[in-house]
Write a structure and sequence with these properties.
By secondary structure, the protein is of the alpha/beta class. The protein has 2 domains: about 260 residues, 3-Layer(aba) Sandwich (Rossmann fold), CATH 3.40.50; about 110 residues, 2-Layer Sandwich (Hypothetical Protein Yjia, Chain: A,domain 2), CATH 3.30.1220.10. Helix content is about 30%, strand content about 20%. The protein contains 15 helices and 12 strands. A hairpin with a 2-residue loop joins β10 and β11. α13 runs antiparallel to α14. The protein starts with 9 loop residues before the first helix and ends with a helix. Bound molecules: guanosine-5'-triphosphate. It comes from Pseudoduganella rivuli. Zinc chaperone that directly transfers zinc cofactor to target proteins, thereby activating them. Zinc is transferred from the CXCC motif in the GTPase domain to the zinc binding site in target proteins in a process requiring GTP hydrolysis.
Length: about 400
């Protein structure tokens, strides 16, 4: 059942403090899909959305199905480990809270590589903000097809593993993309999630269609102000002194996160005190490219297939808004490893520059090679005609 958040829900009912939900999960797990499910449900609430992307070019705001909600984008770095981004988050919250028309709820979508705990801690950095908001819960999306390759990523042995951190931090774990795996996989994943996080409720979904009553208004954190006063939330690196949160994490041989860096030790603290611990996988990078001219669809399809064939393992995420020659609609491109989706969306506006933008996130990405490949796809009429002639000559 797809439950809307009704008037009886505690999510809607808190009079004084605005509930904040953090949506997290590894790259491509389905966070934006869940966000759209929440925003398009009939709950009658005003929801402010704060998004943080890993790439420099903002694609996510094009993918969010906006209605009356307001979307704030933060693309200047990862929210969990760049101090400026967390300061930005506080500034956005201050602006939101100063408005005469209040929001009923705030959703924060973290980047797919973020550790949600420092993000949660940010809500208590500023006393005024901490008094006015209530951290309702951390909802972690899990990609049923790909999560295990990230949990067991051999390159992260002995390092912080964000896929693990995100599951540890969850109040709710949503095992998504169940259409791509079979029942035995789902059961194995449920057990694996339970081994990592014994307190979180585990849900399963296809296209993030979860009962919203299960993920919003859950009261995962007791009191924001109390947490803000709790030195463990901001400061301790002792493993075992964890944030006062409802669940436990059983560390085992599958747990690749840095055991010096417990869940109660946000990256903010690591940075501010220069303590060791939290570090993103340094082998993962992003490449953001924009194109002021449309692509030729024939070339683009060939380029995309070759890219995914050759680099699908390393390509954690690809998303883009693409313009094709002779096509009035923008196209949305999404790929998670080799699972790709390219589909038309709404029309380009008449007064709008048809700027294509693509963000690649993964390992061994070479910006020049990617750009050269996409330049080859550009629909310069002479170029395209020449190539087609070549193809005809060859057949
Ligand atoms: N097959 C299948 N695809 C899904 C499902 N849920 C989401 N997707 C697709 O997976 C891709 C990634 O989904 P998003 O919601 O953008 O994932 P995300 O976590 O927001 O991605 P990032 O913000 O880049 O980390 C999109 O193409 C979605 O349409 C699902 O249950 N099954």
């Amino acid at each position: 059942m797809h439950g809307a958040v009704g008037a009886a829900s505690p999510f809607a009912a808190k009079p004084s403090q605005i509930p904040v939900t953090i949506l997290t999960g590894f790259l491509g797990a389905g966070k934006t899909t869940l966000l759209n499910h929440i925003l398009t449900a009939r709950h009658g609430m005003r929801i402010a959305v704060i998004e943080n992307e890993f790439g420099e070019v903002d694609v996510d705001s094009d993918l969010v199905e906006t209605s009356s909600e307001e979307i704030f984008q933060m693309t200047n770095g990862c929210i969990c480990c760049v101090v400026d981004v967390r300061t930005d988050l506080v500034r956005i919250l201050q602006t939101l809270l100063a408005r005469p028309e209040k929001f009923d709820a705030i959703l924060v979508e973290t980047s797919g590589l973020a550790d949600p705990m420092p993000v949660a801690a940010t809500f208590f950095m500023d006393n005024d903000v901490a008094r006015q908001v209530r951290l309702d819960g951390v909802v972690t999306l899990v990609d049923a097809l790909h999560v295990e390759s990230h949990l067991d990523d051999p390159q992260l042995k002995g390092m912080d593993n964000q896929a693990v951190d995100q599951i540890i931090a969850a109040d709710r774990i949503v095992i998504n993309k169940t259409d791509l795996v079979d029942m035995a996989d789902i059961r194995r994943l449920q057990q694996r999630m339970r081994d990592i996080n014994q307190g979180a409720q585990i849900l399963v979904s296809c296209h993030a269609q979860v009962d919203l009553g299960q993920i919003l208004g859950i009261g995962g954190f007791e009191s924001g102000v109390a947490l803000a006063d709790d030195p463990l939330f901001f400061g301790s690196h002792d493993h075992g002194h964890e944030l006062e949160h409802e669940h436990d994490h059983a560390c085992d041989e599958h747990c690749a996160h840095d055991h010096e860096h417990g869940r109660g030790a946000p990256a903010s603290v690591c940075e501010q005190t220069a303590a060791p611990g939290h570090q993103h996988d340094p082998s993962v990078s992003s490449v953001s490219l924009t194109f002021a001219a449309p692509f030729d669809r024939w070339h683009f399809d060939i380029w995309l297939k070759q890219l995914l064939d050759a680099q699908g393992d390393d390509l954690f995420r690809l998303k883009g808004i693409v313009a094709f020659a002779g096509e009035s609609r923008r196209h949305v491109l999404q790929a998670v490893h080799r699972i790709v989706d390219l589909r038309p969306a709404d029309d380009w506006r008449a007064d709008e520059a048809r700027i294509g933008k693509l963000v690649f996130i993964g390992r061994n990405l070479d910006a020049d090679t990617l750009k050269a490949g996409l330049d080859w796809c550009l629909a310069a009429p002479v170029h395209a005609a020449h190539e087609h002639r070549l193809l005809e000559a060859a057949t």
